[in-house]
Amino acid sequence: MLFTFQNITYTLGTGPARQITVSGSVSEGGVLVVRGPSGAGKTTLLRVLARLQPCDGGEVFLQGESWQHIPSPLWRVGVHYLAQKPALFDGTVADNLAKPFETRVGSKHRFDPGRAKALMQELLLDAHQWEQDSRTLSGGEAARVAFIRALLIEPKVMLLDEPTAALDGRARAAFYRTLSRWLTSPGHAALLVSHNNDYQGLDRVSFVDIDPIQGDV
Ligand SMILES: Nc1ncnc2c1ncn2[C@@H]1O[C@H](COP(=O)(O)OP(=O)(O)OP(=O)(O)O)[C@@H](O)[C@H]1O
Fold first, then answer.
1. Which residue's CA is minimally distant from atom 10 of ligand 1?
2. Which ipTM was obtained for this model?
3. Which residues line ligand 1 (CB under 6 A)?
4. What pTM value is reported for the model?
5. Which CATH number does the domain housing residue 135 bear?
6. How far is the CA of 73 from the centre of ligand 1 (A)?
7. Over the stretch 37-56, which tens digit does the pLDDT of each residue have?
8. The domain containing residue 70 runs over which residues?
9. Residue 20 lies in a domain
10. Which strands, in side-by-side order, build the sheet including 3-12?
11. pLDDT digits over 9-39, tens only?
């Protein structure tokens, strides 16, 4: 298995706490769809797995190596969380795409503007948008820019949180084409949260369910 999480336990909410325990795994080339009703804790699970928020217990393995042995910033290069609301900063699209390569952990790869532009084209963004202020992008455009940035970082596992929610039909098809191709190159896998069940075209899909009635604590 490329990515395995065992008995990941986390607590939801600030009111009466609900504790969830969930396990799952995904092999190279596979997509693990995280299912559960609204508020079940799907986003929280992805954020825990990316080590963007703490959990109460459990262990995660990337290529057999426990997260306990890998510093968080490095972990997040290998296990990339793509937020439902794209986290772009002020600056152009090009600035946003180049940004990860300015940091120490990101600098293991060089920023490749040619590849970035090819991905923009593939994801139906206009070449002139390279210089566009990211604050003026539509929701669907911003989502695709964040996806391109994720691809450029070259993670092993992508944690995709409703990545097509803001996309129209054509952009959605382009997104899944690009994702499918990425999954066919070695050492890649994805976890996916999607409310609109639009992942049918993907190969090797498996499921993990978050049970919303797991015990109150
Ligand atoms: N920072 C927070 N503070 C308080 N409560 C939170 C916080 N983050 C999440 N929650 C609560 O935890 C629960 C799970 O949220 P989460 O976003 O993980 O659910 P989800 O399954 O992804 O939902 P949806 O399908 O609606 O996106 C919700 O009840 C939410 O209100």
1. 13
2. 0.94
3. 12-14, 36, 38-44
4. 0.94
5. 3.40.50.300
6. 24
7. 999 999 999 999 999 999 99
8. 3-209
9. yes
10. 18-26, 3-12, 57-62, 65-66
11. 999 976 677 899 999 999 999 999 999 999 9
